[in-house]
Structure formats: structure tokens, C-alpha cells
Amino acid sequence: MTREDEIFKKLKQGDGNAPEELVKLYYPEILRYCLWHAPDRMAAEDAVQETFLKAIRFLDRYEHKGKFRPFLYQIAANTCVDEWRKKKAEPLPEEVEFTEPEFFRAEAEVDFRLLVERLPEEWKEIVLLRFAQELTLREIGLVLQLPLRTVQSRLRRALNQIKKEIQEGGGKNGI
Q: Which InterPro entries match (predicted)?
């Protein structure tokens, strides 16, 4: 039995702490996802909070079959789209300064983000969900409501385009 299954068992038993446990379980990865879609950390945190509020509000309608993670990502994706439509988010600046100790990891994430930004819209989300959020292809299909084969082919095309960009000098120094 997974941690998620245990929490849903507690929910059915009426444990008042179960929703909080669910938030603690998924908060870091949903925040990381929203950071990819937000113009700043505060906006991302707002989106995460809204995501969990919606998820908890609709828990009574959700029938647990071990697919809560994709369900949560779907809510996060919709929330991010709604928020950014309202705010008309600014594009990522070309020069980003990092003061955190994980500078090289952050720099690599910026390079990755800039490469992903060049992809067609239908490929971007798949690449982000796969590599930034580490979802399985099946989970991505559930989040985006696409057949597994479509997810696979779009991911393959996106990776080929990224590879081509890097080979043509579109990597770190060419961006």
C-alpha cells in the first residue's frame, strides 16, 4: 500500500489530518511544476495554494484508484493557465542571476527552460512533465488527456528538436 493509498484510507475513515498529509506529500513537486509556469515564486506559490484548495474541495467527487497524482497535476495545469491568462505573465528574462548555493543546477534549469520555450506548445508541457516533474508517460497521458502513443511521439519529436538545437549551437552559449 502506497503512502497515497494510506492517506485516502484515512480520508474515508474521517481523519481530519488526512488532507494536510496529502498536501505535505505532493506540495514540493506541485510547487516545482508551478515554478516552471510562473513569472515568479510568489505567483507559483499562489497557484499551488489554489491547486490544493480546489483538490481538497473536490475530494468528495474523486474516487481513489491510485491516480491522484495525475489528477492533481491536471488541476495545477488548469490553475496555472487560468492564473497566467489573468496576469499576462512576462516572458523569462534572458539574464537571470542566482544567489543560491545550487548555482550550476539552477543554471542548467534555465538552459533547459530556454530550450523548452522554443518548442511548439503541444510539446512543451509533455517535456516539462516528463523531465522537470518526472511523471511517467502514462501519467502525462492522464494529465493531458492524450493517448499514450501520442505522448510518446510528441516527446520523441520534442527531444529530437532539442537535440538539433544543441548540435546547432543553441545550447548554453547560443541561447
A: RNA_pol_sigma-70-like, RNA_pol_sigma-70_dom, RNA_pol_sigma70_r2, RNA_pol_sigma70_r4_t2, RNA_pol_sigma_r2, RNA_pol_sigma_r3/r4-like, WH-like_DNA-bd_sf
18-59, pLDDT tens digit by residue?
Answer: 899 999 999 999 999 998 888 788 888 999 999 999 998 888
d(CA 175, CA 165): 10
Mean pLDDT of the chain, nearest integer: 82
Average the pLDDT over each of 70-79, 92-101, 120-129, 163-172 and give the range with the smallest value: 92-101
Distance from C-alpha of 135 to C-alpha of 69, rounded to nearest angstrom:
9
Give, to the nearest 10 degrees, the angle between helix 3-12 and helix 68-87.
90
Q: What is the CATH number of domain 100-175?
A: 1.10.10.10
Q: Residues in the chain, how many?
A: 175
**Cα(49)–Cα(83) distance, integer angstroms:** 12
The pLDDT > 70 percentage for the chain reads: 81
Residue ranges, CATH 1.10.10.10, the chain: 100-175
Model confidence, pTM: 0.64
Quickly name the fold that domain 1-91 has.
Answer: Rna Polymerase Sigma Factor; Chain: A (1.10.1740)
Which ranges in the chain are annotated with CATH 1.10.1740.10?
A: 1-91
Q: What are phi and psi of 136, to 5 degrees?
A: -75, 165
Question: What is the greatest pairwise CA distance in the chain?
Answer: 58
